[in-house]
Amino acid sequence: MQIGSNIYRESIDEVRAMATRRRFIGVAAATMISARINKRAWAADTKTGVPMRTLGHTGEKVSMVGIGGYHLARPGVEEDESIRIVRTGLDQGINFLDNCWDYNNGESEIRMGKALRDGYRQKAFLMTKIDGRNKATAASQINDSLKRLQTDHVDLLQFHEVIRDTDPDRIFAAGGALEAVLEAKKAGKLRYIGFTGHKSPDIHLKMLSTASAHQFTFDSVQMPLNVMDHHFNSFEAKVLPVLQKQNIGVLGMKPMGDPFILQSKTVTAVECLHYSMNLPTSVVITGCDSLKILQQALDAARSFQPMGKQEVAALLAKTGKAAQSGEFEMYKSSHHFDGTYQNPQWLG
After folding, report:
1. Are 86 and 56 in contact (CB under 8 A)?
2. Could you give the CA distance from residue 82 to residue 74 in angstroms, rounded to a whole number?
3. Is 176 in contact with 135 (CB distance < 8 Å)?
4. What is the pLDDT of residue 42?
């Protein structure tokens, strides 16, 4: 994405006002989104049956479901199993791979890099993330990631954990991380640029408005989109309409609250995946730490049908009470998932 293209000129107050005006209340939100989805036709790969979607204004085709990188190297997962998960996913029609510079001290990227040997890199739309907020730290992390992933470029690079009110200004400042990312893009080390965060939709809105002020438009935004987010400090209500207006690719993450939503005993894993797929997401990223869980994700993608008003209402009714306090969305309500909070040196 070139600076100056698709400029989004509204101030942060205007962005927030727009989000407020468009904030959907209760089931109406999911109903409106479902109505839009029913008008869309997503083509499935004729060999694998996995539906493909378009990544916003990039025009890239990505699988409805993507493999999360963190789980590939979590304790108890052997390297051989991680490689099998990635390669089986790619063979079965998943092309979107998620990762991050800091996942498991780099082991997640190392394992994915090994999995992408022998021609598998060509099958993948590869994404990773960096934590650095200044130019030098960001540049170093980009190079580390490319080395671990055994590739000369990633398809998408994202600023990770935009969870502090100060993050947008640091990234866009003179000498900030964006400078390193733009230089890396010019050098052919990455193709598209996005950001992620899980803490507050208001911080996402600030990141978008800061980008606008610098005449920059992101290619993708990653955020929690699930059956409980709908009810509590909702990215779906506040951020999703803004992304749709700008035609920015929507990356849904934490469909099961990683994994606390399942612990609430209110919904099943497939219901969680289908709800997130029912939103206008380009891809729903889910952690796969076994071939069984990978198969669950594949089955959910292949069996997905747009949900009607009554189906959405019934599903949200199951989670409404449990979602009210944020107890099962710990990434919003605690520092449990905040790697850069625990390791501020990663920011530079």
Report:
1. no
2. 10
3. yes
4. 60
Residues 6+ apart with CB under 8 A from 8: 208, 211, 212, 217, 246
Q: In which residue ranges of the chain is pLDDT below 70?
A: 1-42, 46
- Cα–Cα distance, 313 to 125 (Å, whole number): 34
Residue with tokens 């408005």: 209
pLDDT in tens, 265-324: 999 999 999 999 999 999 999 999 999 999 999 999 999 999 999 999 999 999 989 888
DSSP H helical ranges for the chain: 12-22, 27-38, 79-91, 107-115, 135-149, 167-172, 177-186, 201-213, 235-238, 240-246, 260-263, 269-278, 291-303, 309-323, 330-333, 339-342
Amino acid 46 reads: T
Residue 230 is given by DSSP the state T
pLDDT of residue 127: 98
From residue 221, how far is each of 117, 212, 251 by CA, in Å?
28, 14, 6
Q: Provide the residue count of the chain.
A: 348
How many CB atoms lie under 10 A from the CB of residue 315?
Answer: 21
Q: Alpha-carbon distance 15 to 288, whole Å?
A: 35
pLDDT, tens only, 156-177: 999 999 999 999 999 999 999 9
pLDDT for residue 119 = 97
Cα–Cα distance for residue pair 27/306, rounded to 1 Å: 15
Nearest to 96 by CA among 324, 270, 297, 272: 297
**Residues 6 or more apart from 259 whose CB is under 8 A from it?**
none
User: Do the Cβ atoms of 139 and 174 come closer than 8 Å?
Assistant: no
d(CA 348, CA 340): 10
Going by the DSSP 8-state scheme, the letter that residue 113 receives in this structure is: H
Residues paired with 97 in a beta bridge: 67, 126
Q: Rounded to the nearest 5 degrees, what angle is found at the Cα of 224, between the Cα atoms of 315 and 291?
A: 80
Residue with tokens 């009607």: 308
Do residues 28 and 316 make contact, with C-beta atoms less than 8 angstroms apart?
Answer: no
